[in-house]
Amino acid sequence: MSSITNEGSDKLDVIGFDACLMSTIEVAQSMAPYADYMVASEVTEPGTGWDYNFLSYLKQNPNMNPVELGKKIVKTFVAQGSSNTEQTFMLSLLNLMEMNSVLSDLDALSVSIQNGGSDEYGVFQEALQYAQPVQEGLSSEARDLYDFVKRIKAGTMDDTVKQEAADLLSALDTFILYLEKRSGYQDINVDNAHGLSIYSPEFMLTYQYEEDKYTDLTFDDETEWDELLEDYYSEITVDQVIYFVEESLIYDTHDLDFDGWDDTISIGFEIESLEDEVDGYLGIDVYDVEGYLIDYVEYTFMINTTEIVYMEQGDLVFVLEETDGEAGYYIMVLYLCTGEEWNPATIQDYAETDYEWLEVYYG
What we know:
Elements: E1 12-16, H1 25-31, E2 35-40, H2 54-60, H3 66-79, E3 89-95, H4 99-130, E4 142-144, H5 145-155, H6 159-175, E5 176-182, E6 197-199, H7 204-215, H8 219-222, H9 225-236, E7 242-244, E8 250-254, E9 264-273, E10 278-288, E11 293-303, E12 309-319, E13 328-338, E14 347-352, E15 356-358
Parallel strand pairs: 1-2
Antiparallel strand pairs: 2-3, 3-5, 4-6, 7-9, 8-9, 9-12, 10-11, 10-13, 13-14, 13-15
Helix pairs in contact: 4-5, 4-6, 4-9, 5-6
């Protein structure tokens, strides 16, 4: 982008992303030096992508301004939802010239939440739990920024935090210049989505997987958001007492119907404990490549320091059947918590397989 815009001195009028999950504050911040406006989707796009008939409109109206062009792209894309009611269509036009105001207000809010300590982290945790996700399941750890901040403003008792949340919402009203959306009945509901997301994993282990990449972004230098995440995780995270034995984790794929194509993932592992009489929760989820939860199983157990919870590779098996979906890439994800139910505040360990190609089992 730097080279084609002469290091930003010859900015693009509009930059667009015909791709999934690109309307994030991090992407917008990285594009702001090189373009005045950005068109992108906060959620996943249907496979058909944009309706490029907007180019014919541009050809017929070569003097149209960038905002008109951006709105035309948004409208023609979302209009496709009238004939495809199963999938969600959503597209935003962002005013990148207002980026600095948004970053400044986000930075101020991040600092004030940190200064507020445990009370504000409780508000932050509730907002994190209930704010509009950009995709159900595993596809993204981002949440709608406007809905997130709106929930913080409603939940806080701190006057400074409340005012800075209000300031950020006002800045976002200017920044998110135009939005159209249409929820599909078999896709994510976007009633509370406003067109711009922010990276906000629910628990620390997920953040740690991506921390080096995230802190390498130029966005990291502009706000205290990553410091807020790190401090929040430190505040809520309990000491680790149970864990997966790393060298014991093993998985493989299998061809159960002997048609020459693998249709099954199986995984084996061991769990150990640093304390006695620890109640544990084990959750195993299977997701498709778009992040949708396909199947899951839950276990509870008690473990002592002298014991091992052992799952042989054949004990945990996922077989792709016709009711699960079509052939494609699938991943198995394991969560380990203390207690008898899933709780991000008590998470102890996390593991996952690679994405593996599975064909449908016909047995």
